[in-house]
Amino acid sequence: MLQRKLIVLARVLTTAAVMAITFLNIDYQHGSPNNNVALAAAKVNRGITVLWNGKPLKLESAPVLRKGIVFLPMRELFSVMGAEIIFNKGHIDVHQADHYLGLDVDSFKANVDGSNETLHAAPFYSGGKTYISLDLLSQAFGAKEKWDPKSQQADIRWKGPDILSFQPGVAIIFPKGSDADEEEVIQLVKKAMQAIADKDKSVLRSTMDENADYLDFLIESKIHYRFTQLVHIEPYDDSTGRKNITIGFYTLNSGIIEHGNYIFTSLKNKQGKWYIANID
To answer: Do residue 194 and residue 150 come from a single domain?
Structure first.
């Protein structure tokens, strides 16, 4: 009786072992599986630390070390950069301010700002998350990255805007105006920009003719502005009486950072005083 029970137990254990071996028999050279085994076969290392511009970056999902390559959770990383991420049946579109990245899970091919590129390591999907290699940040976005296997530290240096350091405001050094009129317009535009960044409706209205309210939407929206570039100061237009100054800026809205330009158009009122006629 005892011998029969031992035989039955041995058969059960043998069957379980075969099933486990079949489940784990995955060929990673031909793409990663869409299940949690990918993370089991790769080395999930919670000892890996990630630095973002010199400061520790907290990630809910641990980095993965596979064949000597560090992989990071894509959505968490791109969210720090303020990127918009769109998934569509294995294809991923990433829009980050001035940059675009198109890639596919388990593919070495990618589109970087309109140019076809070959990735050093293919992104893979596992445990409900997509992972990208550390060096993708330099290839696609121009970041500087470094991996130190001894200290188990990934160091990312990013000069672009990110949600960790985004501060509304004006970061532009203006030249002195070529004449009194241009200097007056420059000061007017600076005052309007600061008001938009500070969401100060009364100050913004004071830059317009008769305290108008047609630009209140710039204050009332949830969009935050950081003005960063003097793009162009146009000469005075005698035919229209306009003086245009083009300003580059970044916006932060619901975790997404975008880049754009506004043209600040100034006119003189009947009293000969300059005012902001439009921002478009």
So the answer is: no
Q: What distances in angstroms separate CA 261 from CA 217, 228, 232, one per listed residue? A: 17, 10, 10
Q: Which of 127, 157, 187 is the last residue of a domain?
A: 157
Q: What is the pTM of this model?
A: 0.79
Q: What sign does the dihedral 167-134-107-65 (CA atoms) show?
A: negative
Residue 33 pLDDT > 50: no
CATH code of the domain containing 264:
3.10.450.50
Ramachandran sector of residue 68 (left: φ over 0; alpha: ψ -120 to 50; beta: rest): left
For residue 1, count CB atoms less than 10 angstroms from its CB and return exposed for 0-12, middle for 13-18, buried for 19 or more. Answer: exposed
Phi then psi for residue 215, to 5 deg, are: -110, 15
174 secondary structure, DSSP code: P
